[in-house]
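Standup notes, protein team

Yesterday: finished cleaning the Aspergillus cavernicola set.
Today: Alcohol acetyltransferase structure.
Blockers: none.

Input for Alcohol acetyltransferase:
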Amino acid sequence: MDKLEKLRPVGNLEKLSAVRHPMRYYLNVAHSANYTVPETFTLPLKEYVYKAVETLIARHPVLSAIILDEDTEEPYFVRLPEVDLAEPISFQKRAQSFPSPDERDSELESFLQTQHDTGFTAPKPFWRLIILTADPDDRRFTAIFVYHHALGDGTSGKAFHRTFLQALRDTASLKPDEAKRVVTSPKTPLLPNLEAAHPLPISIPYLVKTLLKELFFSKQDPKVWAGAAHQFPMTTQIRTLVLPAAQTSALVKICRDHSTTVTCALQTAIARSIFTHIPDKYTRVAFSGAISSRAWLEEKITDEEIGVWVQEFDELYSRKAMTKPTFPWAEAKRSRQTITKELKQQSKNTSVGLLKYIKDFRTELFEPKIGKPRKLTCEVSSLGVVKTENPGDGSLPQMDRVVFSQSASVTGSAMEFSVITGADGCLALGVAWQTGIVEEDLVQGIIDTLKKELDQLCA
């Protein structure tokens, strides 16, 4: 591996994931999308997939890059000279047929749990693509893209599948044996990390405020419920919740009518559901969320690129405001104001910007948390809609349901809600938590209550 082409150092935001990956504190992100190919695609499915992925590797240079020295404070990207597609791509048959749109896909959940507990090892690629089929002719399949979080953020999963769909469509005239198993890596340089694409300014008042908070108010608020203390080892549990397209459309409309967004309404509904199932002594829940920084980066990095360009925001909800007979739209509007304020900052005074003051991520950020109380109840990562043009005549490959999910996080929140609306118009939530941090019955109760809440909102 010493002979591999060195590309660039891992940036501070990328390092968060690079360092915790070998520690097994957090392993990966996944985007699962359902596809249908027309009968005119007569070659074996593997050939179309291989050809499409060859296009993706040429388009996204990070797919041929891996990270070395992850367990040090100076990890860096290197380029694989070629990618043997048989290593990151696998084909498996589902034990059961695809469930109907209103059924829970428990087989996918089980499969995702295994994937989210499986990391990556150099010199193999730091991503996987698993093709799950059920139909005898493989016309319908689920493509599960699992990737190291230092390679891409949540939006990167959307970019992968949009590129993959177009690349599949471009294989319509593929000839036998034209697809390659071994693909030569591109010479294109990696896109810049967040710190190279934005100054991430930190003001003196913000820095002083942060230091004072850390020195005098760093203890866990006893009124905030956040599951059990940080502990190791990490095993991921996954559940999914999917809203039908009609219900998703109704949710979008009612949120607009109340001058807020689906993300903010979901955060509020999740908070209400959590309060329903936790002891009364807990009067607050603490949320975090991710915001894409792409719109204001100096380098023109669009939503079609794969990389890590995000920042965080925090939100606190009180039991008093949440447990009213009717849905608290005022809280959903307040959450929108929080996000709007964060967006206006355009990456000024963010926790990401503070990472430059950390000398040793492992000993300063991660290891000291083990055994300590958790501060965050929930993370909500919302990616909006996967937009595609699907011809109604079925003449081209089509994408429909999409599920976004993450591995559990040893030093993160007690639960993670990953939200995306697929090309079929159905909003899907991928819910993740660490075994031993939250009881399974409690999580299922929260999900069931959330479903009822959303049903009432969209009725």
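Follow-up from PR in the comments: The mean pLDDT is 95.
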